[in-house]
TrEMBL record, chains A, B:
The lineage of its organism: Bacteria, Bacillati, Actinomycetota, Actinomycetes, Kitasatosporales. Negative regulator of class I heat shock genes (grpE-dnaK-dnaJ and groELS operons). Prevents heat-shock induction of these operons. Pfam families: HrcA. Belongs to the HrcA family. This is Heat-inducible transcription repressor HrcA. The gene is hrcA. Keywords: Repressor, Stress response, Transcription, Transcription regulation. Residues 103-321 form the Heat-inducible transcription repressor HrcA C-terminal domain.
Length: 338, 338
DNA sequence: GTCTGGCACTCGCACACGCAGAGTGCCAGG
DNA sequence: CCTGGCACTCTGCGTGTGCGAGTGCCAGAC
C-alpha cells in the first residue's frame, strides 16, 4: 500500500504534467507544491511509484510522467469532479435554450462541450430503443406505396418507404393508423412488438399482407441499432494534442470517423455516473493514447443516450468530468421540456 | 503569351510536384518527361514562368513549386478531367445502391468521395429551397398543439411543433391537411407562399388563427436557409497534408467545423460543371492553402445541392475532378430513383 | 534567334561536436 | 525515515562543416 505522501506526490505529478505537458522532476515538485519534504525524499517516493507502475520516465534522467495506471488511480482516488461555476452554468443553460429542434439541440451540445473542454466532443442522438413512441403516421404516396413516419418522445423523426403487396384503400389506411396509434402511442419501443403482434387479424384478408409489411417495417425501424447516430465536433482541438503530431492524431481521426467504433465505446460505459476510460482501457487501438469521458443523459429520469469527450490521456480530468456532467444535466432538462 | 513548350514545362512541374511533394528542378524534369530539350533550356523557361508568377522557389537554389496562379492555368488550360474507369464506376454505383434513406445516401456519398480522392469530402443535403413538396402532414399531439411534418421529393423530412392560439378540432385538422396537400403537393417550395396565401379564408373565424400559425410555420420551415445541413468526412486524410503539420491543418479543421463557411463556399460556385477554387481564391482565410473542388448534383436534371472535396492545393486535379463529377452523377441517379 | 554545355555560386540539410542544464540514483549522516 | 551531497546520464541546443542539388549566366553551336 502506498503511503499518504506518495499519493500526494502522484497527484502533484499528474496536476503539474497536465498543466505543463512536460515531464516533472523532483525539484520542481517540491517548489510548486508544499509537500514539506526535500527533493531527495520525493525522489525516493517517485522511484517507488515507478516500481508500482504509476509513473514512468520517457528517457533516463528526465522527469516522470503518469502512466495510464497512474491516471486511473488519480481519477479514482485522488481527484473529485470539479463543479461548474455559477456563471458557467448560466452560460450552458442559455446556450442550449435557443435550440429549435432535436438536431439543433445535439449540434449545440457538441459545440458547447467542445468549447468548454477544449477537446473533441461526441454526442449520441437520443437512442430509439429506450425511448417511447409519440406518434406513428402513415401516408399514402401511391396506391401501393406508403410512407411510414415514426415520431419519438425525444422529437426524433424516422421515415421509411413501404411497398405494399396489394393496393391499400384510404379507409383501411385510416383504420390502421388509428389502431396502431391507440396501441403504441406513449409506449416504450421494447414493448411495441408484443403490442402489435395480433394486429393483422383485425383486418380483411386482402389487407393483411400490407398490414404485416407495415408492421415489420415499423419493427425494423425500432430495432435498427445501426441507425444510432451521433455528432462529433471540436476536432480542431486535436491540434492541441501534443508535439509528435501526425502519428498520434491520424488514428484518432480515423477512429472518430468510424461511428460504429464510437457507439461501441460509449455503449460500453455502464456506470450510471461519469465514466472515464483511460488510454489502453479503450478497446480500439487508435484511441490508445486518448481518454474518453462519457456520461448518460436523458429526458426523464432515465438515460436514453450518451455524450462525452475524447482527449489526450493528459487532460484535466476533474474539469472535464465536471463539464461533461453539467452539460448532460442541462441537455436532459431541455429534452424534457420540449 | 507563353510558348507551347513553356506550358508543357509548367504542366510537367505540376505533375511532378503533385507526385513527389518536393520542389522540382530542371534536371529531374528533363529526365522524367521527354521534353526534347536540355536542362539549361528548361531553366530559362522556368525563369520566365517565375517572372509571370506561375511558379516560385521556396528558397534560393531549390527547385520550383507551382503557385496558385500556376495551378489555375494548369486546371484551366493544361489538364482535362480524368474520367473514372469502368470498374471504378461500377464500384461507385454498387456502393451507393445499398442506401436505405436520405441520411444513408449522404453518408455513403461522403465516405465514397473521401476514399476515392483521399481527401476531405463535403456533401450538402439536398436543399429545401429548390426541391418540391411531396407531402405535408399534420398531427395533433394535444388539443392546442400540432406537429407539422414536411416531406420533400428528395426524401428529406422536417418537423416542427406548432402551438395553436386556440384548440383545433379533429375535423378542422383533417380539412386543413387535405386542403394544404391538394394545393402544395408536387409544387416547388418557392411557389408555396402564393399558393396558400388565401387559405385561412376558407375556415371558420375561430380556426383562422391556428391555420395562419400553421402556415407561417410551414413557410418558415421552407425558407429557413440556415437549416441547410451538410456532412463531412475523411478528415483523417488531412494528415496527408504536408510536413509542417499543425499550422496548416488547424485552421482547416476549424473552417470545416463552421458549416456556415462551408455552405457559403459551396454556394459561391455558380459554374454548372465542376468548379475548382484554388488557394487564395477561397474567401475564408483558413482555407488559403487548400483547394476546393465542387459540383452540383440533383435528382432530376437540375442541381439541388453541392458536393465536393477539400484538399491541399497540391492535389491531383484531373483525378479529383473526375471522381467528384462521377460521384455527383451517380448520386443524382440514386436520388431520382427513390 | 534559339538551344546547349559549362562553370561558378548559393543555399539548405544532415551530421558531428561540445556544452549547459535538468534530473536521477545512491550513500552516509542526522 | 528524512536529508544533503555527489557523481553520472541524458536531452536539447547552438555552432561548424561538407555535400549535393539547383540556379543564373555566358559563350558558342545550329
Amino acid at each position: 500500500m502506498l503511503s499518504e505522501r506518495r499519493l500526494k506526490v502522484l497527484r502533484a505529478i499528474v496536476q503539474d504534467y497536465v498543466g505543463t505537458e512536460e515531464p516533472v522532476g523532483s525539484k520542481a515538485l517540491t517548489e510548486r507544491h508544499n509537500l514539506g519534504v526535500s527533493p531527495a525524499t520525493v525522489r525516493n517516493d517517485m522511484a517507488a511509484l515507478e516500481d508500482e507502475g504509476f509513473i514512468a520516465q520517457p528517457h533516463t534522467s528526465a522527469g516522470r510522467i503518469p502512466t495510464d495506471k497512474g491516471y486511473r488511480l488519480f481519477v479514482d482516488k485522488l481527484a473529485g469532479v470539479k463543479p461548474m461555476t455559477a456563471p458557467e452554468r448560466r452560460a450552458i443553460q442559455s446556450f442550449l435554450e435557443g435550440a429549435v429542434d432535436l438536431d439543433d439541440v445535439v449540434a449545440r451540445t457538441v459545440r458547447l462541450l467542445a468549447q468548454l473542454t477544449r477537446q473533441v466532443a461526441v454526442v449520441q442522438y437520443p437512442s430509439l430503443t429506450r425511448s417511447t413512441v409519440r406518434h406513428v403516421e402513415l401516408l399514402s404516396l401511391a396506391p401501393a406505396r406508403l410512407m411510414l413516419v415514426l415520431i419519438t418522445d425525444t422529437g426524433r423523426v424516422e421515415q421509411r418507404m413501404v411497398d405494399c403487396p396489394a393496393p391499400f384503400g384510404e379507409s383501411s389506411l385510416a383504420d390502421l393508423r388509428a389502431r396502431l396509434n391507440s396501441r403504441v402511442a406513449g409506449r416504450r419501443f421494447s414493448d411495441v412488438p408484443s403490442l402489435v403482434e395480433d394486429l393483422p387479424e383485425a383486418f380483411e384478408a386482402e389487407d393483411r399482407g400490407t398490414v404485416s409489411t407495415v408492421l415489420s417495417t415499423l419493427l425494423e425501424t425500432l430495432v435498427e441499432e445501426n441507425e444510432e447516430r451521433l455528432m462529433i465536433g471540436g476536432t480542431a482541438n486535436l491540434t492541441r494534442f501534443g508535439h509528435d503530431f501526425p502519428l498520434v492524431i491520424r488514428p484518432v481521426l480515423e477512429a472518430l470517423e468510424e461511428q460504429v467504433v464510437l457507439l461501441k465505446l460509449l455503449g460500453e460505459a455502464k456506470d450510471p455516473g461519469v465514466t472515464v476510460r483511460i488510454g489502453h482501457e479503450n478497446a480500439h487501438e487508435g484511441l490508445n493514447s486518448t481518454s474518453v469521458v462519457s456520461v448518460g443523459y436523458g429526458s426523464g429520469g432515465e438515460a436514453v443516450a450518451k455524450l462525452g469527450v475524447v482527449g489526450p490521456t493528459r487532460m484535466d480530468y476533474p474539469g472535464t468530468m465536471g463539464a461533461v456532467r453539467a452539460v448532460a444535466r442541462y441537455v436532459g432538462q431541455i429534452l424534457a421540456e420540449s
